[in-house]
Amino acid sequence: MRVLQLIDSLQTGGAERMAVNYANALVHYIEKSFLCTTREEGPLLKVLHTEVGYRFLNRRKTLDFKALFKLKRYVKEQQIDIIHAHGTSFFIAALLKLIYADCIVVWHNHSFEDKNLNFLQRIALRSSISSFHTLLSVNENLNRWAQNTLKHKRAYYIKNFVIPPSEDISDHNPFPGIKGKRIVCVANLRPVKNHGMLLDAFNMLLPKFPEATLHLFGSQNNDIYAQSILAIAEHDVENVYYHGVNDQMDAILPFFDIGVLSSDSEGLPLALLEYGQAGLPVVVTNVGQCKKVLNGLDGCIEVGDTEAFVEKISEYLENFEAAKKTGSAFQRQILAYYGRDVILPEVISIYEEALNKI
What is the pTM of this model? Predict the structure, then answer.
């Protein structure tokens, strides 16, 4: 079996990281694993496994026939069986299916449903549905949308998964702060992530916990939202550090003590799974699949409830030993239900079903 992961960029978003996770992990399971990025390379290229076949299309516009035929040639030359298209790459995957009927297209929906799409995106998606042999969704709500609204007959809910850290790192903690008081948020600086609420909550914590530090990781587009968040972090709230993009988050998360997400909307955030893999207790908003991932553990707060957010972080800061026990329990759940070796066999069986029905 030869499978290509298709993604529009290799920036550090959740869909992009999962595409790379799939490409890297499948190296150990199938004949040959590939990854193709259509529009933009990025920092995730550095963590791509050396055994993964790689191609960059340099696609410049929606209907870029040069990029499309470059993709077709690569698929034919490498005898690729399945195109596993992630997120917004669905459109070029659908076009490929029109000109090369022999390929099988699996679309992996990380966040799309009608409320998140503009008119042209809805038209593009609806016109592409017939090209997808299988539709995978990262949470149950998206899967119901695929079944009930898109009317797709082969729609599955597939959990995101974590992979073991790529390398060991020094025991010396390079980040400011003290043990038990470092809070980390891994989320690109976009409005849906609501860093403003997080900064408000952290500012409310500081009078009682002046040694607490907040560490922000994620990309930023230098837009109004990012500029305002960085300005607040630098000038208005103490003990906040923005570290930009780090392509080894799975390896450095154990340096922190509490993982947080203040999002207004999510699918199944990979950051939450990585917090769990690192053994961190978490405080996250009740969006997407977050509550299901916590599976009864504390730490899920309703969107916009800043006071509850503050209260839960305060509990962890006040009792570090209890927080560590919660983190250890969360870690056991993540490894049991969201590990690479748990999820990938399910995906491979879906690939095999698609190949058997050709």
Answer: 0.88
